[in-house]
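User: Structure please.
Assistant: Input sequence and predicted structure:
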Amino acid sequence: MSLHDQPIRVAGLDLVCAATSPRLLRSLTPLLSPYRVRRVRRPSRLEVRRVPRRFPDRHLGTVAAGDDGLALRLPGGRARVDSAGRRMQVEVDADATPPALEPALRLLLYLACIARGGVPLHAAAVALGRRAAAFFGPSGQGKTTAAGCSGGRLLQEDLVLLLPRADRGWVVAAAPVWSRPDLPPTRRAVRLGALLRPGPGPEVRLRRLRRGEAAPLLFNPPGLIGGGFAGAPAARLLESCSRLAAGVPCGELRYPAPTRLGPELRRWLEQQEDVGVAVRPRRSR
């Protein structure tokens, strides 16, 4: 079954996929087919095509900002997202293997999230009832462990895309980005209830972070494109991080692993319920 002209919904975007190569479409199908939707009024376009020559760059990748959007250079190809996050294009070397599309798709969703006023986080997110908690921080800090101890339903454990919604505050958007392909896809956005930075401690302790403390911690450009991530993309992301820290309760979590965090987290979320405010998405000019 092909994805061609089949609408899908990922990362808050309604997409229609198009490709010049059946092989490229087949490589996208297992990633995106769980996100298929029936009707889309105004879909964005994800275009994937082969190019006949190899790009000389063999570094991890760079990002450049222009008047019409963000351009990404990566090994074996390049990609572009327009300034509104509504049109995405990927160019892959003619002899590139299908798995090369996964990192391209990952970074495209990252850039599209920023273009739409969102915040992409290296984090693990779980659903606790009708709200989600996202555990963020550097590698080895215990994000996945905290998610496993929370007793919640796993939404993401690698790249969490957070988008502002006028009616629901911030949400964890569904995205096909996993470190393990056997994990189940998340098809629907879940309202974000809290952002927590985990770490080891002798007992379970939750401390509220002020906006000035939380915003710099949320600003975490990806290592894959860190060398070229500057200027307009970085400024837009920093602004979104500040708005996110103002609109969603942020806290520091200390706990001894393994331990049951579910009851403590639910109590803390209930205490913070009235703190979050709905933030309207920033409109692209």
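The domain at 119-271 is CATH 3.90.228.20 (Phosphoenolpyruvate Carboxykinase; domain 3).
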